[in-house]
Write a structure and sequence with these properties.
By secondary structure, the chain is α/β, with parallel strands linked by helices. Helix content is 50%, strand content 10%. The chain folds into two domains: 115 residues, 3-Layer(aba) Sandwich (Rossmann fold), CATH 3.40.50.1010; 41 residues, no CATH class. The protein is built from eight helices and five strands, in the order βααβαβαβαβααα. It has a five-stranded parallel beta sheet with strand order 3-2-1-4-5. α3 links the parallel β2 and β3.
């Protein structure tokens, strides 16, 4: 199965050294050029991500039509718009964390999956020994924000609460 990624999920997984779980879960990981550019700009300009590199196995693909229905009301960035359009064209799951992007994905009939969901699935499949330290690294090193309720629910799901 092919998955399309927005910037944040791929960047944050790379930061905590867990990007390889994508290769376990998906046959191909695609991202539009706008996502790769945003990723590379953050690596170059944000000290939090200075040690991160774009995964060589992540393929750059462009949507044929980057316009989305009613997109002017969604307040999304160019990377998110192109990632959503690419996922829509190929009927792919989309890796996206931002609340507005996830809402837009659902409105388009797509299945959004975020970094927390991926890590929970990896723990469920026994690919990870523990989630709590990874969640802490996401918050401390990446400045990742997640509500206490969502984090608690994720930890309960894997028996760490």
């Amino acid at each position: 199965m092919t998955v399309v990624s927005d910037t944040s999920v791929l960047l944050n997984l790379c930061l905590i050294g867990q990007q390889e779980i994508l290769r376990v879960f998906f046959k191909q990981v695609w991202a539009p050029a706008e996502v790769k550019l945003e990723f590379e700009n953050l690596v170059r300009t944000d000290l939090r991500f200075k040690s991160v590199a774009w995964p060589q196995w992540a393929e750059v693909h462009q949507p044929k039509n980057p316009k989305l229905p009613s997109m002017e009301n969604w307040h999304l960035g160019l990377g998110e718009i192109h990632a959503l359009a690419l996922a829509l064209e190929h009927g792919s799951t989309i890796l996206i964390d931002e609340k507005l992007g996830r809402r837009a994905a659902r409105q388009l009939g797509l299945q959004p999956l975020g970094v927390m969901g991926l890590l929970v699935e990896a723990k469920t499949r026994k690919l990870l020994p523990e989630l709590r330290p990874l969640f802490a690294r996401l918050k401390q090193e990446a400045g990742f924000w997640v509500s206490e309720a969502v984090e608690l629910r994720a930890l309960q799901e894997v028996g760490e609460a």
